[in-house]
Amino acid sequence: MRISLGLSAKIILIGGGALAALLAIGILAVSRVAEDRVLDLSRESGRTLSREIAQEAARNLSLDLSIARGIAGTMETLKAQGVSSRATYDAVLERNFTEHPDLLAVWAAFEPNAVDGQDILFQGEENTDDTGRYLTRFSRVKEARELGAVTGYADGPDAGFYRSPIETGKPYASPPVIRRIAGIDVQTISLTAPIRLDGKVIGVAGVDLNLKVWNDRLNAIHPLDAGNAVLFTDGALTVTHPDPSKIGAPLTDLSADAADFADAVRRGEALERTAWSPSVEAMVFRNAVPVAVTGLERPWSVLVNIREDAMRAASWEIRDAMVIGGIVLVVLIVAALAVTVWLLVQRPLKASMTTIGRLTDGETAIDVSGTHRRDEIGGLNRALVHFRDTLAEAERLRLAQAAAERRAEEARRESTLGLADTLEREVRGIADEMTELAHELERGAAEMRGIADTTSANSATVAAAGEETNVNVQTVATAT
Fold it and tell me: Domain of life here (predicted)?
């Protein structure tokens, strides 16, 4: 079935279709630019957020390490002043333990006989071990204080919290370890500082942090409501993770493509990349930011994962808003185009077509509107005025010619009638003459008939005379 459309409908469809196509292309181009721009802004926001998370972690770790360094400094002062009472050193630890309830433990461990030279006298007490060394530790278990001894300091893979400051003379942050406190296994990290006397390291002061608190703190951070933040040591070991079983694992075990990030963490450098995150189960914008802890030679790092789709969500919202706005705009423009076409084209064109129809029917005494317009419709109407005037002039000429023809016809008819009258008169005269002649002929004929009759009578007389003569002759003859 063939659909016939009017000029206005074609203009609206073609104009609206072209507008919709151009608008779609424009929206696509702008949305691409907007998506890239929003993605860049989201990435920059992610970088800023990552730096803020790293700075917050650095502040907290620096604060906790400063407590250990403060304890170490106080004990260095006590030793320099010749204080050898273990109770005095215990008081320092207990005061710091009380003042910082967020700490899991506060402790100090000295080299053999480094406090009072009488380790042997304290062997077997609750805050030391069989060596009798100063190993006092205040721990917090279920909001209660427990006095105990530092363990695991001598050797083994987890002895770095003590051995490293002793050997290097520098503060140290241990990787996550599990310590048994009051019969409970607790994941902790230790921040330690060396205790010096006359330039020689004679002990270590430290604080232990409950990793559950740190894990909960970082796991509460969800960049753009969908990402996460993970803390790593300078050795690329996991400190916090949404999956607690991953704590202590190497970074390279968390993701197949994490080798570059592990190297960056070990070097204390920043690195960012789009990659797949098993913990988020999505493509993420991954940003590794160093965590510069005051007092530590090498920084830790925080790895922030931000879902890429969440970063693009804002651009998608902009795109959807642009699409909806574009559709509304197209509808409004098409409606405006329809009204405009109806006002400027369809209505005046229909009026012009009506005028053409009336002119075609021979009506010339009509007014043509729209001749003042300076567009094609105005030109058409002015042409119609010219056509109307021409048609009226032609009609006037036709009527004049018809009148002239009628006058000529009447003249011819009058001339013909005059000729006919003349002819009739002449014919009538001829007829009269002929009638008179006929009468004369008739009279002549009558006379001739009289003469003929006389002649006939005379002939009969002559014939009779002849017959009589003939008889007489015959008689004579006979007589002879």
Answer: Bacteria
pLDDT for 212-250, tens place per residue?
Answer: 888 888 888 877 777 888 999 999 999 998 888 888 899
Question: How many Cα atoms within 13 Å fall on the side-chain side of residue 401?
Answer: 6
Q: What is the mean pLDDT of residues 117-141?
A: 92
Q: Are 46 and 307 in contact (CB under 8 A)?
A: no
The residue behind tokens 């705009």 is 329
Lowest mean pLDDT among 61-70, 71-80, 200-209, 394-403: 394-403
Kind and range of the H or E run holding 208: strand 200-210
Using alpha carbons, list the distances in angstroms from residue 196 to 77, 160, 207.
9, 18, 17
Give the span between the Cα atoms of 326 and 334, in whole angstroms: 12
Mean per-residue pLDDT of the chain: 83
State the Cα–Cα distance between residues 140 and 196, nearest whole angstrom.
27
How far apart are the C-alpha atoms of 286 and 97, rounded to whole Å? 37
Listed residue (241, 253, 183) closest to 214, CA to CA: 241
**CB of 272 within 8 A of CB of 288?**
yes
CA distance 217 to 224: 17
Euclidean distance between the first and the last CA atom of the chain, given in angstroms as a whole number: 138
Higher pLDDT, 151 or 346: 151
367: pLDDT strictly greater than 60: yes
CB atoms within 10 A of CB 371: 15
Condensed to tens digits (0 to 9), the pLDDT of residues 165-201 reads: 999 999 999 999 888 776 778 889 999 999 999 999 9
What is the DSSP code (8-state) at residue 250?
A: B
- Asked if 142 and 116 count as a contact pair (C-beta separation under 8 A), the reply is no
What pLDDT does 167 receive? 94
Sign of the CA dihedral with 26 first, then 27, 32, and 36 last: positive
- Residue type at 151 in one-letter notation: T
d(CA 121, CA 402): 154
Instruction: For the chain, give every domain's residue range.
Output: 28-309
Integer Cα distance of 258 and 263 in angstroms: 9
Region 28-309: CATH code: 3.30.450.20
- Angle (nearest 5°) at CA 473 between 471 and 475: 70
Q: Are 138 and 147 in contact (CB under 8 A)?
A: yes
The type of residue at 274 is T
